Amino acid sequence: MTRSGSLGGNPVTFGCMKMGTPICMKAIIPIPFDIDNVKTPEPRKRVTRPAACLQSPFVKSFNSQPNCSQKVEQVLFEYKFCLDCPATSDIKIFDCWYHRGYRPGNKVKKFCKDDLPIVPAMEIGPVSIDSKMWWYTLKQVATPLTDQHIDAMFYFLRMGMKLSGSNHTCSTTTDCYFDYKIRILFDLLTKHNNQFPQRNPLLLYVNGERPQFYTNWGEVQNVFIPIFLDKRAYWILGHFDIANWHLDVYNSAYKTIRDVVMMEAIQPHLNIIPHLLRQSMVLKFEVPDSPLSSRICKGTPQQTNGGDCGIFTVKYAEYIHEMKISTMPNPFDTKLARHNMAVQMYKHAIEKTDVHCGQAIR
Question: 225: Cβ–Cβ under 8 A, 6 or more apart, which residues?
Fold first, then answer.
């Protein structure tokens, strides 16, 4: 950088230019080159690559050229509803992977140290799985399921409803966060007399704008909501029938969990859901001002232990969506149901991991 100044009226030189020297008088040093031999480089052509959104296990063939004769072919999401067993080959692959390093006799460390971590981590919707203990909890009968298990299974169920090609009624699901936020919002409105907020994260579910919840409720007839009873650490299923404007409740231990407890647990959903639908305006009919009506459904298969409420919650939703709730086996084989769910979700996870990461599951 060149600067100039003065000292006692005399020009002072900074760098190579004196004060008062016009900028146009700066020396321009020419760089010699042979202009006749200078050639413009050839532009580098873009390498044809598939779009990131097409690098998915649900797409078999693709091409990024606009005039290409190949068309994108979408593979239907493979989901075995109800008690339809997965393919024998899929069962063998999962069992071989699961039992590697498995120590059933050890009550503390169920897997060897080298076989416990999952590298790279499996992705099932919003859930990242980096340990085999996650699968152990899912498979083990009478073992309570965590929020991550419920979110992963309801995500898998939601994708199966949407992409399996079923001809039955359109359905979608929510997750544990929806249940948690709806109870928090209900407490704010009732105990603190707050007004219904204009900006509400629950509206993203209703409008189909939340990541991995891209179906708005105006396009479906059924919404399946996992509901958690805090005081009992227990899961029940809420089935919101939009056309009939009521919430059916399914409980796999109604001899233990009384109706009064369940009615108290679903009050937030009965009152907040109409507010959400009025604010979102996704329905084609006028939303009533009254809360949802409710019904506790009985006569369904019941659990025989204290830890299978989570798998029953998911299976109730499956059978209702397939309109086979009246034919649900009684007694219900939770061991088979847990194993089949694990096999299908494992296959889905390794396909996604292999495509996006290019690595094999260890």
Answer: 173, 174, 178, 179, 237, 238, 239, 240, 269
In 3-state terms, what secondary structure has residue 291? Answer: coil
Residue 96 has pLDDT above 70, yes or no: yes
Q: What integer is the mean pLDDT of 84-112?
A: 92
Q: What whole-number distance in Å separates Cα of residue 272 and Cα of residue 276?
A: 6
Q: How many C-beta neighbours within 10 Å does residue 355 have?
A: 13
Name residue 18's beta-bridge partners: 13
Q: Is 246 helix (H, G, I), strand (E, B) or coil?
A: strand
Q: What is the CATH superfamily name and number for domain 139-334?
A: Adenoviral Proteinase; Chain A (3.40.395.10)
Q: How far apart are CA 250 and CA 233, in angstroms?
A: 16
Task: Specify the pTM.
Answer: 0.77
Query: In this predicted structure, which of 68-82, 140-154, 348-362 has the lowest mean pLDDT?
Result: 68-82
Omega before residue 120 within 30° of 0, cis: yes
Within 8 A by CB and 6+ apart from 95, the residues are: none
Query: Which regions of 217-271 does DSSP assign to beta strands (E)?
Result: 222-229, 234-241, 246-250
Return residue ranges of the chain for CATH 3.40.395.10. Answer: 139-334
* Mean predicted confidence (pLDDT) in 11-15: 47
For range 23-42, the mean pLDDT: 62
Rounded distance between C-alpha atoms, residue 173 and residue 154, angstroms: 7
Does residue 30 have a pLDDT over 50? yes
pLDDT over threshold 70, residue 8: no
Q: For residues 187 and 23, what is the distance between their CA atoms, to the nearest angstrom?
A: 72
Confidence of residue 40 (pLDDT cuts 50, 70, 90): confident
Among 175, 153, 164, CA closest to 312: 153
